[in-house]
Design goal:
mainly beta, five-stranded antiparallel sheet, about 0% helix, single chain, globular
Length: about 150
C-alpha cells in the first residue's frame, strides 16, 4: 500500500523597506490561511494533475495576541509556502521522500527549489496582487513510488 502525504507551511520575510511586520524579529505571529488541493480523490494515476490554490489578504490577524493585532504584509520581500512530499512504506512503516514522483507547474506565483532536503519538498512563492497574495499551481503525478 502506498500513501502520499503533503504538508504546507507558510512563512514570510520583512517588507522591502524594512518596516513592519519585521520590526520585532523575536515576535512570532500566528495566522489562519487556507489552501486547497483539488481534485481530491482516493487514488491518482500517472499524468493526473492535482491543483493547489491558496490566497489571502495582505493584512492578516495575529491570533497569538489578546487584541488580535492586524499585521500588514503589503510590499513584502516574499511570502513562501513549504510543501513536503513523502510516502509511507507500509511494509517497513518508514516515511520516505517522494518529491521526485511529481512535476510542478506554477500558474500564479513560482516554485523555488529548496537548498536542503531537496527530495522531500519544494518552496512556493506567492504572487503579490493588488489586495491579496496568491499561489496557484498544478502538481502532476509522474511516477509510482515502488516499495523498497
Amino acid at each position: 500500500m502506498l500513501i502520499t502525504a503533503t504538508q504546507f507551511i507558510l512563512s514570510a520575510s520583512c517588507n522591502k523597506n524594512d518596516t513592519r511586520p519585521c520590526v520585532n524579529f523575536a515576535t512570532a505571529y500566528s495566522f489562519k490561511v487556507t489552501s486547497e488541493f483539488a481534485v481530491q480523490q482516493e487514488t491518482y494515476n500517472i499524468g493526473d494533475t492535482i491543483f493547489l490554490s491558496s490566497n489571502f489578504p495582505k493584512t492578516l490577524t495575529d491570533y497569538t495576541t489578546i487584541n488580535n493585532q492586524q499585521i500588514d504584509y503589503s510590499n513584502s520581500v516574499g511570502i513562501y509556502g513549504d510543501i513536503g512530499f513523502a510516502y509511507l512504506d507500509s511494509i517497513t512503516h518508514q516515511i520516505k521522500p517522494a518529491k521526485d514522483s511529481f512535476a510542478f507547474v506554477p500558474f500564479v506565483g513560482n516554485f523555488v527549489e529548496r537548498t536542503s532536503n531537496q527530495n522531500q519538498g519544494i518552496n512556493s512563492k506567492y504572487a503579490e496582487l493588488s489586495t491579496t497574495y496568491k499561489f496557484y499551481a498544478g502538481i502532476i503525478c509522474k511516477k509510482k513510488k515502488l516499495l523498497d
